[in-house]
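Reviewers asked in the last cycle whether our approach scales beyond single polypeptides. To address this, we selected a multi-component target totalling 321 residues and predicted its structure end to end. The input consisted of the following lines:
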Amino acid sequence: MNDESGHTDYHSRDYPVREDMAHQVKVWQFERWGWYFLALVVLLALLGLFSRGPLSTRDVQGDDGKVRVQYERFHRHGSTNPMQISLSGAPNATVELELTGALLDGFNIETVQPQPLRAISAGHGMRMWVQTDAQGQANLYLTLRGDGLGLFRSRVASPGAMPVNIDQFIFP
Amino acid sequence: MDSVLRAAAIYLALMVLFKIAGRRSLAELTTFDFVLLMIIGEATQQALLGDDFSLTNSMLVIVTLIVIDVGLSLLKQRSQWVSQLIDGGPTIIVENGKILHKRLRHARLIEADVMEAARSSQGIETLEQIKFAILERNGKISVIAQEPS
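The resulting structure, written as structure tokens, was:
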């Protein structure tokens, strides 16, 4: 726009209304850049920056692969998202699972399926026991409702397995 | 506390968004614009109230919005700078029968928009009969006719 600013269209008139073209040009620039910004927000939303999309959906495993967590990295306050925890252990046995860190501060766990055999609170988190199937696999499906704001770091651990650290961010 | 913060955040966000959209966006309401406006309202309403549908919460939200709105108009009255920042100023888009094309382009208007305003407000038929067309602060185009010679 600057190269054209000499054009008479950009000179302020005094009659019939008093104009301030310098300001008006800034307003137009703001509209233009604002439009680019909004388009960028839409693009990022499609990519999942605000939950549910390639940028947000994570599938992580411990170094030994015994604990696997699928979750959403980005949440929105008040909305629900699933989380799936998979454990491998001995067939038809009971495995212990520990959720620690800020998970319970930032989220409401609305449902846990299947129900763990036993669940107790443990320090800042909770400890659950689940039954593995004939292949030694156990899956736990959780529904998390974002209740806090900001970053929440937590950890999913099982005795004898490498723990998995998860970072989740809740938008307002 | 959060009701007030919510309302203030929504007020600010909507103000910036409609500034980006420009003054023309909602001034001339077509049927589709009207539907769009209702959808924006619906989307806003959820965020304003959250999951608290109590009378107190709705009153807090309304009171906050009115306080901000009146406060801003008081500020505008006192400060020319704030007034221009929030409301902008009028822009001349036709001068003595000639369109100021660069201005028209930046305002995202076309000649047909100017002529439509000229016909509906002044019964003007051609561009030459327009002395001034001014894009007002509220996005409407006001037209001043050429004096008959």
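The longest strand of chain B covers residues 130-135. We regard this as preliminary and will revisit it once experimental data from Aim 1 are available.
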